[in-house]
Design goal:
The chain is of the alpha+beta class. It folds into three domains: 112 residues, no CATH class; 127 residues, Jelly Rolls; 72 residues, Phage tail protein beta-alpha-beta fold, CATH 3.55.50. The protein contains eight helices and 18 strands. The strands form three sheets. Strands 1, 2, 3, 4, 5, 6, 7, 8, 9, 10, 11, 12 and 13 form a 13-stranded mixed beta sheet that branches. It has a three-stranded mixed beta sheet with strand order 15-18-17, with helices on one face. Strands 14-16 form a two-stranded antiparallel sheet. A hairpin with a 2-residue loop joins strand 10 and strand 11.
Amino acid sequence: MLEEDIMHELLNKYFAGTITQPERSVLFQEIDSDAALKKEFARMQNIMAISGMANKEGDEQWVVQKMSELMHVAARRRQRRVLITTLKYAAVAFFVSCIWMVYAYQQAMKDAKDNSYTYIEAPKGQSIHVVLPDGTETWLSSRTKLSIPTQFNKKERTIELDGEAFFTVSQDEEKPFTVKTRQYNIQVTGTQFNVFAYSESPIFKTDLVEGSVFIYDKDDAGKTLHLNPEETAFLGDNGELAKSYSTFSYSRYIMNGIYHFENISFKEIRDCLELWYNVKIHLRKEEISSYVFSGKFRQSDKIELILQAIKETGKFNYKLIDEYEIEIY
């Protein structure tokens, strides 16, 4: 377990948007194994207005205020730790350290002011409900990353997504809402839809519940796909976008923290489990990929419980090799 002050520093950097990718990985590994740190993470998420941000009058001003409060908390913690250390040294060293501390504080405030985005990541095996500055709601699946501006500009509402999320977009015809993914941008004005677009997976899928969406290829502006309600966009065998009738009907399950699947192959289930739980699932028998299952489980369930439930059908057994590998036979 890493020292507590280091973890708090990483938490501050995470919510300030200055954390590096290696630091982010260390932080979430510790969150998975440290209940106290997980509680502190949740507390700071509340400060960032997760599960309720910007849903009252004066939202935008409130969000800016809370961001400012968080930056001051982070700066005060840094100051305290530096002060405790410098008091142990001679007066000259203390004087020099104080000068450095003032400079570091000014730089931290400058970085906080310049940083106009908030970065959110759902921990492994957990989901997060986020209310955006415009009132749009989104439910992030496990290991999903979301980049959102602290305040949308006057012409557009744009966010970046790496993972899976369900959106209920606040209606605004004059300010289109755009979800940027690795390869495609999804643009709407007000609607409900689900996006599956993990950067570490070749799968891309968008299911439209109501309203309409336009999907654009980042590499070819001429490639555009329009979806009507109950249609799904996906990548065909040729790697091109295609659409068909959507079987997506479990938005209510997502909102209640439940994964739901109906008559889908184990290959599809395996692909999702590998992404959600950051594991590699090896199949000893390839025919298991084509087995079809239906069921539902809570997003907070451990992967062993999910596999045990599927195992009860009598179609396969499984063995945990280690924390990151599972064998199906």
